Amino acid sequence: MKKALTGGFFGCLGVLGAIVAVSVVLIVILAIVSGGDDEEPSSSAQGNDATATAPSGSSDQTSPTTAPASTSGVPPTETPVPPTPTPAVFTFGSGTKIVGAEVAPGTYRTRSGSSSCFWTRLSGFGGTFEEIIANDFGSGPAIVTIAAGDVGFDSSGCSDWSEDLSAITADPNGPFGEGTFIVGTDVAAGTWRADGDASGCFWTRLSGFSGGFDQIIANNFGANVVTIAATDAGFDSSDCGTWTKIS
Known about the structure:
By secondary structure, the protein is an alpha+beta fold. The chain contains 2 helices and 15 strands. Strands 1-8-3-6 form a 4-stranded antiparallel beta sheet, with no helix packed on it. Strands 2-7-4-5 form a 4-stranded antiparallel beta sheet, with no helix packed on it. It is flat.
């Protein structure tokens, strides 16, 4: 009787062991199946990410506008254009000059007055009166036109001569003193009165600055009122004092 029970007991244990073994196998299979399912979406996601970023990388490489910014990080700057240098103004001082070699024909002015400026246009260097084309003497600013046919030009006691013919007065309608001035640039057309002694005042209206008698429009000695025309080229005066426009 005892032996039969023992055999039945161990038979039951065998059945239970078989059941447990089958359960373990099923768990392992489920684990494998479950693990395979977990890995497949992961690899799929990686594939999708690679596919999504590929066009962006391709766009960055082919775009000509974003390439400089991505490499340097600094926006391009324009190269500054150097300023055009201002040509030097030709000037010369006193002494005898050879026209064409040391001084070119043209109109020159002294941009400030001097106590005794004397200039002469020359047809030669012999020192004779016949070689004097024209000359002038004054104590204020001077203007001269040197012709292409002149051989020489001589000046003494004058400020430096300049090809700069811009205004030397602050206002063409404002007061001015003695010397030679450009009408329309230094001095405005109109009627002017000088405040000096009329008996010693000498003035000249000019059509040019060659110093020749043919360019004297009108002159007067002993009068301190003058009407300057808009067509006048220049106006010269000495010992008249300060001119003030009255109309």
